[in-house]
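Section handout 9: paired folding examples.
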Amino acid sequence: MSLSEVQTLAPPPEQRRALVVMKDVSKVFSSGTVALTGMSLTVNGGEFVSLLGPSGCGKSTALRIIAGLGDVTTGTIDWPSSRINSKGLPEGDISFVFQEPTLMPWATVFGNVYLPLKLRGVTKAAAKADILAALERVGLKDFADAYPRELSGGMKMRVSIARALVTKPKLLLMDEPFAALDEITRQKLNDDVLRLWKETGITVIFVTHSVFESAYLSNRIVVMKARPGRVHADFPLVTSLERDALYRSSEEYRQACETVSKTLLEAMGGEEH
């Protein structure tokens, strides 16, 4: 098969401008724990990048540093294509989906999705159309008046994703958002996230410890070494197939999982390329 016949889940050239650049980042916590050392990573506009690595390798730490939820000890974070605010972060360009949905139990689904716009001073009336559009994207428009206690775990995570999308960010950061869900729900949400990525052109950095999830979702995988975390391997994923239920049972997917698994084992074993 020629390269021209291969479909890649990659952004078109005009979207490939660097969005965020980590340069030789190290992170040492007050306890003395070295979480990251010499971590360098460039993420381009429109990419879906999975950060994969063993537990404790600093995946979530790297994600939080990109989000501005933690400081670097040494190194820099640059935003080449964004307007930077006084805190050194891009203005309104980042949204974060955590491991737990973190919804306000006293607020409706509508109210939870409204929160980031409310914090920006947008009135509920002015935000209504964007909130309903975000809920429609995740299949929850009919649940706008429901409360979190009335939702399943997967539905709660969809609300969290809608809340992240309602601000129309350039970059969506996701920290193992589906790890606690059952496999069927997880697969459905993987499909939802892929669809949203394709529809919106948003850039995604997705932290996971699942070889299978990373191989299914990503157009690029960054495998990290065990603590102190740094990049062990960084490679694109190419497929001639649409990523759907049939892809999950295909030989291409099996081969992709095998490649990712071998690379992860190398990273855990301390081998270098």
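Moving on to protein 2 of 2.
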Amino acid sequence: MDQVGKIEKLEGNKATVSVKRISACGENCKGCSSACKQPSVIFETDITGDYEVGDYVEITTENEVLLKQIAMLYGIPFIIMLATIGIFQLLLRNNPDKDIISAVASVASLALSFFILKSYDKKEMKKNTLKFTIGRKL
């Protein structure tokens, strides 16, 4: 996946680059206010070539790491929601309102998955698992 980053600092052959995180709304602030509040990802990487602070560069991300994060982003809420529906269906077998109750509980389980994903994201950002490669200067 290709993105655009800005070189913030250069020290020898190391560069500190900031890349704005991509949100689901496609950075359309009129349609979604979260894109404006998305923090930039700042990382250090080896750099070779003639770059200066403030240059915009093409950034390439490893697809396998990105696919893992996408699977977590969509898989965790889906699994938690299905498990919640199954548990409530089993617990409320004889209740005539079991479908409505399990539906409401499954929607509430999405709030739980939000907090799980938020802590997962913080952990992954500390580990710096995203591997960025600097391409050409823009």
